[in-house]
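From: lab user (bench 3)
To: helpdesk
Subject: output format question, protein + adenosine-3',5'-cyclic-monophosphate

Hello, I'm new to running complex predictions and I'm not sure whether the block I got back is the full result or only part of it. Here's what I submitted:
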Amino acid sequence: MNIQVLGCSGGLSGDNKGGSTCIQLNHNILIDAGTGLNQLSLAQMHRVRHVFLTHSHMDHIAALPTFLSNQYGSEHLPVTVYAQPHTLEKLQNNIFNGDIWPELSSVTEGPEALLKFEEIHPGQSIELQGMEIKAFAVEHSVPTVGYSVKSQGRHFVFTADTIAGKQLTEQLNRLGHIDTLMLECSFPDELLPVAEKTKHMTPGLLQSALNSLEQQPTELWITHLKPSNEKALRETLQANPPHKNTVVL
Ligand SMILES: Nc1ncnc2c1ncn2[C@@H]1O[C@@H]2COP(=O)(O)O[C@H]2[C@H]1O
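Helpdesk reply: Thanks, we reran it on our side. This is the complete output you should expect:
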């Protein structure tokens, strides 16, 4: 399995020029559609067939409307967008509503059928090209899922936006051994009240989440640094890496 983190900023990039959350699995699957999606060329965008969304927040869906309009002429239509019912409802009512962007999912046949919405529920697995993609619920300010991806003996887990706590610990322990765990760290410890209010991690919360696991992952990728806090967070995480194999993306 080839994993490319196209974007992972927790906001409008700042110094992290990659953009906001978008992860590419092999050539044709994306997790989230933040502005990092813009790293793909048009030809690469045309190869994308499946998009798995974690939640409805803008930094995870910002590029979805324009990405879909770029799909005219692609040989692989429609693109299937998987998300929880809450996320799909918010997208349909607030984005693909005929005002902000066309109601793309209403066209179901012919060359203009660009988009198919598909519900996914926590606990559900989808098999695609020998890959098992399983959604699991995490604790955030809106209904959110993380994804466990197993392929060719590798287990990659993206927990999306989440705060540390019982729910995250239970879900991760249930997933067994994880090769690459991608966890967020949005705010510094000084902003713990903001992290708690917005249901995000700080370095301290991230460490407590790791400490609560029955098995440590082989490596830890840290993501979703908020641009205003990115410099301070990088310094803190570099001085005290939460795991022996830590990569701050
Ligand atoms: N009162 C608030 N509640 C929730 N989010 C807020 C609030 N104030 C600012 N935010 C920001 O809005 C962002 C929405 O996306 P995130 O959850 O990634 O992170 C959130 C915070 O950075």
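A quick orientation on your result: The chain is about 25% helix and 25% strand. Let us know if anything else is unclear.
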